[in-house]
Amino acid sequence: MNFDISHLLEQWDYQPGQVVVRRFIGRDGIEKIQLRVDLGLLQMNAHGRPDGKRPFGHPTLFDYFVQKLGKHVAQHGGSQEGFCLKSEDCAKLQLEALQFHHRYICLLQLEDYAAVVRDTTRNLKLFDFVEKHAESEELAWSLQQFRPQVLMIHARATATQKLQAEDFAMTTREIEAAIETLREFYLNHSRADLIEQSPEIQSLQNWLEEVKSKRPLTKREQLEIDLHDAVKREDYEKAALVRDALRNLKSSK
Question: Residue 110's domain spans which residues?
Answer without folding.
Answer: 56-70+82-214
